[in-house]
Fold each of these.
Amino acid sequence: MRTVPYFINDERVDGEGDLLVYNPATGEVNAHVPIADAQLVDNVVAIARNAATTWSNSSLSQRTNVLFTLRQLLVEHADEMAAIITQEHGKTIADAKGELARGLENVEYACGLIEHLKGDFSSQVADGVDVHSVREPVGVVAAITPFNFPIMVPLWMTANAIASGNAVILKPSERDPSAAVRLAELLKEAGLPAGVFNVLHGNADTVTQLLEHPGIDAISFVGSTPVARHVYLTGTAHGKRVQALGGAKNHMVVLPDADLDIAANAAINAGFGSAGERCMAISVVVAVGDVGDKLVDKITERMDRLTVGPGDDATSDFGPVITKEHRDRIVNYVASAPSDGITVVRDGTSWASKPGFFVGPCLLDGVKPGMKAYDDEIFGPVLGVARVATYADAVAMVNANQYGNGVAIFTRDGNAARLFSREVTVGMIGVNVPIPVPVASYSFGGWKNSLFGHSHIYGPEGFAFYTRAKVVTTRWPLPSESQIDLGFPRTR
Ligand code: NAD
């Protein structure tokens, strides 16, 4: 049985395998993955610190060259990368290629690092005095990533962290760790010096060692809300800067004037794509006014045409969920829904009796705050429909929710859409766009329990997070201008 290697100091390194990696489409064990202990974490942090010193002094053109080459290599290896992702995550090949394409955007953005790292210069701020600012790398970044985007989320962090002159230790999800190792090999091939990018595998204990290690300067985390909160509190208590992105419950508000065919298509794509295992998936459609019955009919009719199957079968619309435990958890939400007064319009849970970790598409009508199927992030192919009387009720529902990652509004009324985007307490908003993941030149991040820390990830905020500012004030006085003056320096 294959054991997924670490990638340390430019080498694949074997470890003791303890965790199991499955092929979710068959339910069979695919590989073992080792767990890094405190000693190994210590060694890798020392390697990364050493590498960071040299890399922080590399020229910006050298960094740009590495990232340009990485981009090309990822394009050339797209089929291979997608196959790795599909085998361990379960998503369809098309979806895996889509995630890689969105990750590539971040590499392309990072290629503009000379622009992104530019400082300011002010001439003659006082007589004979100039000021300029520079941004310097923070040092060693720990990147801790979730299972649902095994290449895109590592690229969200890695591209900008390396471009900024840092070394990175990536701790990918133990459930689909192989894409991270392949990324490390491609970075080596792209010319990244040894030790600048390392991959360590492990579990919660490994993460805790990274969070507490004095040799780590910054933590980028993406995962579930309880872990994000813990990562933020522990990392900041140990003096690190932390950005910790958490879970979500994304609403799609459909106003009475919306084109219901467009809205139904969007609900299907955003609700069931990737088996609903996206942090920006739509999990609640909020039908405003009298659109509920028509919308449920249109969504149901489309659901009945979906094909569930292995990710490497080109006819599958979506694949299995990540583990047996996660599948059973999803099934329980659907099974217990009627006791909360929810109508199960479509029940795909019979898929759970087949080999692999499948759940078919499920539609729950009548979800409301206070019901588990509404309050919790189910993270599966389960779409809820909430019915409200007015636009104001829809906004109130969105804003009362503990999460604030993404939200969408479907309408033909520009004023309503504009008002909505100003009134909702959510970080990313789509107007007739169901999954409004910002392009790489805008930063990604939610509000409320979807983000701990003030910095959004990637884009301009990514560069700011991975660098520290310095401001240099300069004077070249003539000896005749030099004098003793103990007053506070003034600009006028
Ligand atoms: P997870 O929180 O279980 O795991 C994320 C990472 O944290 C993994 O590397 C894991 O090994 C580690 N981890 C797990 N438990 C830990 C603990 N107790 N202490 C320290 N580290 C721990 O998340 P997941 O199940 O892999 O991913 C799905 C979740 O991620 C969903 O909640 C989803 O909404 C969220 N997510 C959010 C975003 C976003 O941008 N906001 C993006 C993708 C996924």
Amino acid sequence: MANTTFRELFRRYKQNPILTASSWPYPANSVFNAAATALPTGETLLLVRVEDRRGISHLTAARSDDGITSWRIDPQPTLSSDPERFPEEIWGIEDPRITWIAELDRYAITYTSYSTSGPLVSLVLTRDFKTFERKGVITPPEDKDAALLPHRIGGRWVLIHRPVSGFPGSRANMWLSYSPDLKHWGDHCVMLEARRGAWWDANKIGLSPPAIETSEGWLVIYHGVRMTAAGCLYRLGLALFDLEDPARLVKRGDEWVFGPDESYERVGDVGDVVFPCGLVHDPATGNLRLYYGAADTSIALATGNVGELLDWLRGRPS
Ligand code: BMA
């Protein structure tokens, strides 16, 4: 008999969601779209987007020994917008991604600043998630879903991001930009295009967590947005890019690999959204923990394995 079930590549944690506004030490409307990293202490750190009851978001750190339970949440916002010094943050800061940059001995956090001209990408560096060196705007609006690769390629830093233009009929594609100093960016080029028509990833895609460096290439988990009469559906797909030249696509999966299904993903402030901004990957086993915003309301966890993701991609049609 034909196997008609999709082999789940990401397995939901049974007690999802793992963090909600009711877990928060101070009033919040929603907690979602968290960046993630493994700290040298072995703890998992999530940098959580917290939306307050004005609609403005800030970022707050939560730490856990097993990355699943017993989260220790900073009692106050960890990184808030600072519109006096950085006017582009006037309507808050959202959707962070964390990349450990060994050369700088610092974590780089790219996040969306919500400016009066629309969303754009800002960069901040930190060693400890307590003090921060704000680097300000790195891409003009409209742009979001950005993360750095963890090291230079050909002497330059590499940023994955998702600019949007108002040009009629244009699609929201993923782009790459390069920089000698993390400040001046150039050689912009398309990395991955949104498909067209009925596809699950038609018209609008974006990077989800930072790319994973594997022996076969940069493994990218990206979101595709399907616009329907009932609203948008946010789902996840996979693509692999050349290690030396991340503008070169090696393979793109045809089907989505994860999408809204459980009630906490389907119902919330924005229903039918799974939106991961972070993962923790153990290179020894390939196991990964994917942290995702569920329905723009809470944070949920799914586990997977990089080897299995690569196997799946290999088996898909070219
Ligand atoms: C995207 C981002 C995310 C959000 C998603 C679904 O454009 O703004 O912050 O989770 O929409 O609302």
